[in-house]
Design goal:
The protein is α+β, with helices and mostly antiparallel strands. The protein has helices at about 10-20, 25-35, 40-55, 65-80, 195-205, and strands at about 100, 105-110, 120-125, 135, 140-145, 150, 155, 160-165, 170, 175, 180-185, 190. InterPro entries: Anti-sigma_ChrR, Anti_sigma_zinc_sf, ChrR-like_cupin_dom, RmlC-like_jellyroll, RmlC_Cupin_sf.
């Protein structure tokens, strides 16, 4: 984990993650941030503790026949599973090959089931790359894994979280140094704003 993270998910987003109400795509991107950010991990633990206290105060419901037996079986299976070291959020997903999407930019898919026109992918851009000026048809949640980029809202380095929606327009530029690698959950497509951008939009598949 790093102490240099400057951009974090909102408290509302962290609370939604803790309560399990985020879709899998956004949950994965938040998980990647949490794997790098001790401060937000502590916040999520706090929200989960509050949820546990509320659950304890709730009126108990009768269990279905066999429910206890099923829970005990799952616990036994969990303990029987071999330990293979710490798991990273991406470990349970299949990653596609890197493919070219534009000068200096490559993309690889992440096998999160696509629901309601939401997709998850990794983006790798070379230092100095200027991404096209664009807005979004829905939300775009990004966690930086390596390198850095910047736009009008600041500089985003490893662990930083960028939470954009359809009201945001930006033109990210990759900072000098290392290539920038991010994981992105995108609802709908990006909408390129320039005349040339609108011409090449169908080729990008973003």
């Amino acid at each position: 984990m790093t102490d240099a993270i400057a951009h974090h998910p909102t408290d509302e987003t962290l609370a939604a993650f803790a309560s399990g109400t985020l879709d899998e795509a956004r949950g994965l991107v938040v998980s990647m941030h949490l794997s790098l950010c001790a401060a937000c991990s502590r916040k999520v633990e706090g929200y989960e503790a509050i949820g546990g206290e509320l659950l304890e105060q709730a009126t108990p419901l009768s269990m279905e026949p066999g429910a206890l037996r099923n829970v005990l079986r799952l616990i036994e299976e969990d303990f029987a599973a071999p330990e293979t070291g710490p798991k990273q959020p991406l470990d349970r997903y299949q990653l596609g090959p890197w493919r070219w999407v534009g000068p200096g930019v490559r993309q690889r898919s992440v096998s999160v089931p696509e629901v309601s026109n939401i997709k998850v992918f990794m983006l790798k851009a070379a230092p100095g790359t200027r991404l096209p000026y664009h807005r979004h048809a829905g939300y775009e949640w990004t966690c930086v894994l390596e390198g850095a980029f910047e736009h009008q809202f600041g500089r985003y380095g490893p662990g930083d979280f960028d939470e954009a929606d359809e009201t945001m327009e930006h033109k990210p530029t990759v900072c000098d140094g290392d290539p920038c690698i991010c994981i992105v959950a995108l609802q709908g497509n990006i909408v390129l704003q320039s005349r040339l951008g609108r011409i090449i939009q169908p080729l990008l598949r973003l």
